[in-house]
Amino acid sequence: MSTIEGPDGKPRCAWCAGAPEFVPYHDHEWGFPVSDDRRLFEKLSLEAFQSGLSWRTILNKRDAFRAGFANFEIARVAAFTEADVDRLLQDAGIVRHRGKIEAVINNAARAQELIAEAGSLAAFVWRYEAKETAPPQSRSTSPESEALSKALKKRGWRFVGPTTVFAFMQAMGLVNDHAQGCVIHARAAEARKGFVPPASAHTL
């Protein structure tokens, strides 16, 4: 079953049945195109923390993550020190995993380098917008997520495997992976149709 009945009686992606908080996230965020660098960096960071865990765990801790990581402002996170790592390891509101905490700080510095290279984080990631050749929610990676993962790893990013990157692409609208029968599918498609990706400083 690709859809379930939502609280308003309209069909939604079946994964919304996993938790009540999934419905507003699904309806207003997931699959809609994003060009804001802070939001893109936040999502890449949260997807890294989700590795091996459930998205419900991360979503419910999102406010605590934002508080701990300076609202995921790239320059501020890039300036974090070992004292910040120690602080975050004591923060019960987040996932206290040293490797993932250090990866986010590293990735913030790498994001600064990427912004200098491409003009913005958005300009870079939107080069890898999915071609949508597969049915919605039929895969956990794509050729585009594999290419973006490879490009980020080449630039020193951590915790950005193809599956993590594909989840990021689903959420940030680089692919419309809402089920065909989902009431949000058409809304996300319309938003993507009117979205103009940021111009890149360089081509691939």
UniProtKB/TrEMBL annotation:
One of its GO terms (molecular function) is DNA-3-methyladenine glycosylase activity. It comes from Devosia aurantiaca. GO terms for biological process: base-excision repair. PANTHER family: DNA-3-METHYLADENINE GLYCOSYLASE 1 (PTHR30037), DNA-3-METHYLADENINE GLYCOSYLASE I (PTHR30037:SF4). Keywords: Metal-binding, Zinc. Zn(2+) binds at C13, H26, H178, C182. The lineage of its organism: Bacteria, Pseudomonadati, Pseudomonadota, Alphaproteobacteria, Hyphomicrobiales. InterPro entries: Adenine_glyco (IPR005019), DNA-3mA_glycosylase (IPR052891), DNA_glycosylase (IPR011257). It holds the Pfam family Adenine_glyco. The keyword Zinc applies. It comes from the Bacteria. This is DNA-3-methyladenine glycosylase I.
